[in-house]
Fold each of these.
Amino acid sequence: MPNEVRYRLLPTIAVCLFAIPGLQAQASFQFNGTDVRPGTKEHFTIKISDNDGNKAQVPITVFHGQSAGPVLGITAGVHGYEYAPILAGQQLINRINPAALSGTVILVQIANVGSFLGRSPYTNPMDSKNLNRTFPGNAEGSVTERLAHFISTKVIPRSDYFIDMHSGDAPEDLMAYSAYYQHDDKPEISKKGRMIAESMGYDLVVVFKTTTKDYMKDGFPSLYCSAEAFKQGIPAADIECGRLGMIEPHLVDKITTAIERTLISLGMAEGKIEPVEKMAVVKERLYIESEHEGFFYPLKSSGDYVLKGMKVGYVTDLFNRTVQEIHATENGLLLFILGTPPVNKGESVATVAVIEE
Ligand SMILES: [Zn+2]
């Protein structure tokens, strides 16, 4: 369009926009070659295959609001055995109303269907890769690397804000919390991530502090889904809610509520959110490792407050002989404790969260 014509049109467009109070013109949202009309939602099944004959599908729902606003990208099922966020995603299909939405939500229902249908904790049985250690992925790689590449190039860059939803995987007794990425070189993006994490309604917020100097540079591997979003300059938050691969309805509800609270805090939905009465911020996470393979016996549960030196569990060898006692290394909350017997040498059996004063 020649400049002259564009300048003549501008006042006309401006008049149209301001003529209808409270209603900003909203075009269709194009996703995967389809126009999603304002006030509607569309389901997509993305097919991804690799050179070894592995075939994956990614179910995605795009909710396009009646009026304009930001784009919120959400992923569930990056780990397919983490059922609480996956079930929350299923509920959100009917709970996010595009007619009342300002902006757009791209909800990846299950990022790793292979892990979900294969009932496989951590990894995709098709290529034995952990999707949440694979970002930004590779367009020419194995099926999991291609899944990561698809999310890195087709979902994350479309988003103004990004949330990755997890829970404790099959052996993980995990406390519910929200989290956000932080780097000193990106104070504004970090601050917006913190705003999202704090709006979700969890009484525990963890800072994913990235201190490596080159972290934000191209070529520094993001590995994690929401870390990739943060590296792309998008405020990024995580939900960790649910434990041991179980389905606990109140925790599924806590996730759907967290997303609804986020939509309100971003101005994408109407409503009022009650602030959390007492919110603790985790400034540091201390990992305690097993020095042996064998059995782990927890003596505490996630969410317990522990004191430095307190015994939280022990490890036995394959003949029931105690080979290691596990003690808390600092005062804090047990963010995670291994909840099932098998343990390998070098694995974390507990994480103590040190709370910001
Ligand atoms: Zn996970």
Amino acid sequence: MSKEHPLSPEKVEKVFLSLAAAMLLVFLLALFYSAYAMGMHLPGRDGEINPTMVRETPPFDEPGLKQIEPGRYEAVFLGMAWAFQPREIRIPAGAEVTFITTATDVIHGFHIEGTRVNLMMIPGQIGRATYTFTEPGEHLIICHEYCGAGHHLMYATVIVE
Ligand SMILES: [Cu+2]
């Protein structure tokens, strides 16, 4: 008498359960792929400093570009209302640059156009990101965190020669 319908509630439930499990698996795979194959991470935060002593604390007592070995550089950047220090760095094409950043007053952003370098400049916290500039050209560094009336004036430049 009771002829089983092809879409019984049990079957529907099984289908939905397997779909949900498959989606979880896909999301997990996407997460691992982005983290390990594409190297995407949360903005680096290695270390903290006293936010009232930024200009006395190495390496922030000497903002700017420093060559650490052939082809490798360190660029120390400060964010303040409303400028970056330094305003410009020049590097040869192929250079690997590690950006080390912090802020002297309020929270700023540090995004280098055309790259995946994107840090928060937070007073008391050190941001770090490494990028290799392969092509000659100019990259604008912009503040992407609204920091007051002069926010839109905040920029610096990376010149790859
Ligand atoms: Cu800003």
